[in-house]
Structures are given as C-alpha cells and as structure tokens.
Amino acid sequence: MTAAPAGGRGLALAGVVLGGLALFGVLLLGIAFAAFVGLGGPGGSGYGPTQGTVAPSAGRSLDGPVLAAELERQVSDEGGDPDGITCPATAEVAQDVTTVCHGQVDGDEWAFVVFFEDATGRYTLLEV
Predict the structure, then answer these.
(1) What is the pLDDT of residues 61-99, one digit of tens each?
(2) Torsion angles phi and psi, residue 101, rounded to 5
(3) 106 within some domain
C-alpha cells in the first residue's frame, strides 16, 4: 500500500475560499443595485404617486391656480423645490377626471398628472 500524497487538499480549499468570495461579491453588488434603483438612480424621479385633497370652488369646478398651489405644497412636502407650476381650469371635479399640469422641480421640467377620485377633490398625483 502506498500513502496518499501530502498537500492534496490545498487546491480544493483554495477553490472553496475563492468561490465564497465571489458569491459574497455578487451579493454586495446586488444589494448596491437594489439600493440604487430604490432611491431613484439616474433617470428616476425619486417621487412616487401621492394622494391629497383639494376642495373644488363653487359647484364642482376647480381653478387652475388653486390646483397649482396644492401641487406646489405637495411637492414641497416631499422635499422638492417647485417653481412655476401651472394648471388648466378643471371644469368638473369628479371620479375619473384627469388634469395635467406643468412646471419645474429642482430646475427640471415636470408634468403632474392629477387623477381625481371623487367630487370632493380627493386626488392621486403622479409626477413625471
């Protein structure tokens, strides 16, 4: 009988260690990518849909400047710096009525899509 060659496990041990380091590196890259995408990386707005309420004027209409002021408040509450937001007058505030406003946030041009939920002025705002 012959004895097993000495030192035959070194290559196997090195393979296991290098494989573990590679797996750890991929895990760190995945976490970094998820954080980058979650924080709105390049091209992402960082803002998501928000909800609020703005009371319609007499009847069920809404003046453009009133809605613009509400959107500026909403953007400011989210940490943005709104400037020059303008909205058209909304003839009727009711379920499924949509209004699009325009302006700047932090120096960039934005569109604000306002989806009215009901006649009381509840809305969902999407900033694009």
Answers:
(1) 899 999 999 999 999 998 899 999 999 988 889 999 999
(2) -115, 165
(3) yes
Q: How confident is the model at residue 43 (pLDDT cuts 50, 70, 90)?
A: very low
Is residue 2 in a domain? no
Between strands 82-86 and 98-105, the pairing is antiparallel
DSSP letter assigned to residue 30: H
Same structural domain for residues 37 and 92?
no
Whole-structure pTM value: 0.62
Q: Which residues pair with 102 in a beta bridge?
A: 86, 111
The position carrying tokens 């943005």 is 80
Question: 81 lies in a domain?
Answer: yes
d(CA 98, CA 90): 9
Range of the domain at 54: 50-127
User: What per-residue confidence (pLDDT) applies to 17?
Assistant: 84
Residues 92 and 64 in one domain: yes
User: In angstroms, how far is CA 35 from the centroid of its own chain?
Assistant: 13
